[in-house]
Amino acid sequence: MSEKDIIFEDVEKETTKEIKKVAKSLQLSDKGDRHSILNRIKEKLLKTKKKDRIYNTSSSSSSFSSTTETIQPKSQQNKNQIVMEKEEIVFWKVFRNIVLKKKIFESIKSNYIRYEIKKYDEIVKVEWMINNGYIGLLRDKVRIAFKPLQFSFGNDFSHFSADNGCLDPRNLLSSSQYENQRILHDNDEIRGRFYLETFRNLIRYSNHLFNVIKEPTEENYIFYEQLFSNYPEYFQTSIDETFFITTEYDCMIALKVLVEKFDYSPSGRMFQRCIEIGSFNCSTYLNQTFEIPLNNINQFWNEMFYNRFRQASISTPNVINERVGYLIKNTGNNNSSNIPSLPSEFRLGHLFFCILNEISLKTLLECIETILLLSEQLKEFIESISLNKYQSPEKGDSSDLNIIEYFYKEFKGIPMLTREEINEMKFTNDELNIEVGQFSSDNQSIQKLYEMILLFTLPSNLQENFQFYQFKYHYGKSNLTTTSSSETLKFNCIQFGVYDEKSIDWKIFIERTQNGENLEIFKFCKNDTNKIIEFVKSTVKNRQLDSFISYLKNVVMDKTNKNISITFKILLNNQEVFNEFNDSSISEILSAILKYDGKKSITEKEFESVFNIFKTHLTNHQLVTKMLATPDFNVIEYYKLNYFESIYGYLVEDIFNRSNFKNMSKIHLNHIFVNRRDQFKLAYQNSDDSQLWFFFFYVAFSQFTQCKNSFSFRRRNIITFPENFQFTCLQTKTKIKMIHWFVENLTNEELFLMVKKISLSNLILFQFISLLYNIDINNFHKNNNNNNNNNNNNNNNNNNNLNLNNESENENERNIKLKEFFIRSDKNKMIYIFEYVGIFGDLEVLSIIMESLFPTIESSINYRYLIYETLTEAVLEGRINIFKFLNENYSFIFQTSRFSTVNKNPLKKLTTSQLESLLILSIGKGDIHMTQYLISDLKLSYSPKKIRYSKDNTWLINYYKIDKVINPLKYK
Length: 972
Known about the structure:
Blueprint: H1 8-12, H2 16-25, H3 34-55, H4 61-71, H5 74-95, H6 98-109, H7 126-131, H8 135-143, H9 188-192, H10 196-204, H11 209-212, H12 218-230, H13 232-235, H14 239-248, H15 252-262, H16 268-276, H17 280-290, H18 294-304, H19 317-330, H20 361-373, H21 379-386, H22 401-411, H23 419-423, H24 429-432, H25 444-453, H26 459-474, H27 506-514, H28 529-541, H29 545-557, H30 561-573, H31 575-578, H32 583-595, H33 604-614, H34 620-627, H35 635-642, H36 644-657, H37 666-674, H38 681-686, H39 689-705, E1 706-707, E2 710-711, H40 732-745, H41 748-756, H42 760-772, H43 779-789, H44 811-824, H45 831-840, H46 843-853, H47 865-877, H48 880-889, E3 896-897, E4 910-911, H49 912-925, H50 928-936, H51 954-960
Parallel strand pairs: 3-4
Antiparallel strand pairs: 1-2
Helix pairs in contact: 2-3, 3-4, 4-5, 12-15, 14-15, 16-17, 16-18, 19-20, 20-25, 27-29, 30-32, 32-34, 34-36, 35-36, 37-39, 39-40, 40-42, 44-46, 45-47, 47-49
């Protein structure tokens, strides 16, 4: 039987014995299990089909369809056949047209896409493919076992470091194996510095491989099967780490592959760990697959409420509610009566670490449900309140006894509600998402829920929660001195919109806001406009408006966006208050309103309201400055459409005159740039060189580094903009991308302007990238000198035309120019070019550099150190192709000298320590494929004592079986 006659779907149905026969007929090994043999057969057949398609390009489109028909599952053939036929017909019509084909390939070879579009073999970083949305490309590379492939495993948890006051979530686990060990670390300091909610948020928004590809589909099952099979050096030699990372991202489909295809059998403690970190899909799969013993589940029930230290991180409402609900529904405990009893020393009472007014109604109801589910376990605590026999578990701690006493007198205990009573309370979906503190004090349902849960909050929250309860529901009826003399009331009546002249000490309130205390104005009645208005009217009536204005200004200057939105509401409804603000205060209000949450833009309707209020109080310049900071809403375009006659003309001129570029959002920068020679023509022409340089820099900079309305770069020193900026604070990769952008988008005159303003080292990089576009900027200075020396405007010379478009007639000419450029340029200023080669793995440029500067071992020896810069970047980017090219064509590069001094190393060879440092760098990155090449092909060795164990290289350390005792603090 020939290869063409073999149908893989039929082979899969055969017995293992028959499958081995097929493998032998295809001249394949029949060793290994059924799965591995089938994989070899499938890969062989796919390669055969691909060859057939290549060799039969002259056949009709129908022959292509018949070829793909045998590859595709039969269920897909009818659906895809018509589409594939049409695509193939169009493809071959275009491809066989000589003129069109030539144009297409010329376009593909064009160097303007050099840094944007990579060749298939140049794409090696999994992180890059995921971040740029190339999931299909990643699947394809994994399917064919493409190597090298660079994985990154530690980035998401870099936040959890001792320096930041947090620790990696795995440090919650004891340093020993999980069997017969507590899942929670015994070290109180470690437990106290771990924030589960922070960990969960990092996971939720992560772009990690296991978080992006996690849907339980057949396609993803196959993907992870191929991933673990084709890259065993990562995922099989570190199978425990693979389990950890799949469960951390709750990637059940990957876990399922580990268990079913690789015989991974986690312990009961692993199940417990999944619940602790909130990976309920994984814990459900483990429980269903392995039937976790009941004693493991009971043990977790006990440990979940082990709260001797009142550890807040495991007592937040979401965590407790999720765990209780999950355990009851998924572990055979279908009702509260089946929940195991807690040991007598575990006095379960205070459950939730939270400020009740800040949680949503939905969360509050979930907490109530948890209390009802645990009513049996909470029975002792509830009875101690109703019998007035409660005693604090901590000796000498009586801080909450006054609150307990209040509940005993008012309700004879905790006012528990039945599930039926709660079900009778009707709430809308919108109300479920509102914070508890925002509901009206007249809402009796919310009050009853609040009273039921209050005593179940931790003692550290109890005083504040009770203070809120008194202010909200019993102001003027109850004694507010519920705190000790050393404590300060957390609330004031202004936050509740209650005007009480006796309780309001404006002087104290103003001092507290000036000292940085965040007293959010009308915090608990922000949705009650009438209450706010009545409060303002009361200040006027009692001649306290001046004091209120002073307080309000201090709150405004605090720049708390929620305060600003409330202030805006006051101003809209009280002209008398508004008139008391000076222009500076109005400017601050406007700035904050336009930014709002700092995340979402202001709407056109809101903008119109703001504009109408403030336009008579602020200068056009102030309006422009504030409005250009909005992250998304195109204020400039809005001006153009609605206020062209009166304001738009001033706006565009003011932008250039005052160089308001640094604080502008990307959308506005792009708008100005695109229209700079049309709508902005006059202002553009009247700007000086520094203003334009500044403008072009920020437009380019925003393309690669700007997030919403803030820039994300660090300055090494305080730098005066724009003249002294000189790209010095930018990473090489960002700098290269920006120069690419300049060359692609600026005119010749604008490029000349940029070249004049940059340093020599950056100028050489600029010249190099320009040559990649077939532009020779060496003519810049020549043409500029001609312009300065020739004062007439003779149209026959090129003084007013920079003539930058010296495109080479062919690629050879361009390469000749590059070679000449490398030879004549100052080599000591070429470091960025050598870094460029390593970052982007550009073998074409590297080849020209080697031919120009380093054809032999004796050539350019004083500049050989630059190659080390290329190799360093290549290691960081996983560019094995750089090492292979040099090793195969210029192997003398890797000849080392035992000596490090110049006199003893006349050929300036790389030192042994330099090459070793490259290997150590690769090991630190955890790049197994790069490390394999450096060890096996370049014969490099390493000293284990120099290796630092980290989250990034755990997989590599396991693969090479490096002694972990060297660095016992695994994630320190």
